[in-house]
Design brief:
Layout (H helix, E strand, L loop, with lengths): L21 H7 L1 H14 L8 H11 L5 H26 L6 H17 L2 E2 L3 H10 L4 E2 L5
Parallel strand pairs: 1-2
Keywords: Nucleotidyltransferase, RNA-directed DNA polymerase, Transferase
Organism: Artemisia annua
Pfam families: zf-RVT
């Protein structure tokens, strides 16, 4: 963006502590780390990777199951990336600032909205996710 003359300061707009790059924005920035830490806990993502490529590789390798837990984890990762990036852009282009808690809450609401729209088989895992996220998924109709 600096090459285009649109954004000339290379400081992270979320924490103002370091130069902005992908690694900093999602793993070293205090603001993003607070958001990601809360989101990981809510989604039961137990990875400690602090590197973008390693995190994505881990998700790709571990996401072979199609159970509700992995749906939640993938939705949470995608929503976290989206809303952290949206907060970054809001600060740069609109001078709009949200707290890390507000960004986290947007992530949770987005994941809940998407979970409400999926159809699942009834299981203990599904019921546990529904209780934790305070949602109700649609159920597959049993074939009688």
């Amino acid at each position: 963006m600096a090459k285009w003359g649109l954004y000339t300061v290379n400081r992270c707009p979320l924490c103002h502590n370091d130069n902005e790059d992908l690694q900093h924005l999602f793993f070293q920035c205090n603001f993003s780390s607070e958001v990601w830490s809360e989101a990981k806990e809510m989604a039961e993502i137990n990875y400690e990777e602090r590197n973008w490529q390693e995190l994505i590789r881990r998700f790709v390798n571990d996401c072979v199951n199609k159970n509700i837990g992995w749906v939640v984890r993938r939705l949470t990762l995608a929503a976290s990336i989206y809303f952290i990036w949206q907060e970054r852009n809001g600060r740069i282009f609109k001078d709009a600032h949200s707290s890390s808690k507000e960004v986290y809450n947007r992530i949770v609401e987005n994941v809940k909205y998407k979970l409400n729209g999926i159809t699942v088989k009834d299981s203990l895992n599904v019921r546990n996710v529904e209780a934790k996220w305070k949602i109700k998924c649609k159920r597959l109709r049993s074939k009688d």
